[in-house]
Amino acid sequence: MTEQPASPLTYEQATAALTAPGGFFELATEDVLGEPMQVFANRPRSLRDLLAGAVEKGDAEYCVFDDAGERRVLTFADTTEQWRSWPPTAPSTS
Questions:
Q1: How far is the CA of 1 from the CAs of 4, 6, 22, 87, in angstroms?
Q2: What is the Cα–Cα distance from 67 to 57, expressed in whole angstroms?
Q3: What is the domain partition of the chain in residue ranges?
Q4: Cβ atoms of residues 18 and 24 within 8 Å
Q5: Distance (Å, rounded) from C-alpha 4 to C-alpha 85?
Q6: What is the C-alpha to C-alpha distance for residues 61 and 73, in angstroms, rounded to an integer?
Q7: Is 52 strand, coil or helix?
Q8: Could you give the 3-state DSSP secondary structure of residue 68?
Q9: Is the pTM of the predicted complex or chain greater than 0.90?
Q10: Eight-class DSSP state of 85
Q11: Residues 26 and 42 sit within 8 Å (Cβ to Cβ)
Q12: Quick check: bond before 87 cis, omega within 30?
């Protein structure tokens, strides 16, 4: 006897599961610029936190592109290297 696959979730069911307490995209209400807003509870709190998370992922794939039939991959390490070199050195004016 083969087991029947579970029926797929509806959009509403999937959204509710992902945004519920403990879900990957858990929502919470927080004060933002003096107004209560729904925000992702487990988000990075700053750009610095976001970039620090990228450093921890190292050579894991970040973005994959099909560039005219050629697969091009950016890793978190590639991205980290790019933002560490910003801003580029200004040209000398002498």
A1: 9, 15, 35, 63
A2: 24
A3: 16-43, 46-89
A4: yes
A5: 53
A6: 7
A7: helix
A8: coil
A9: no
A10: T
A11: yes
A12: yes
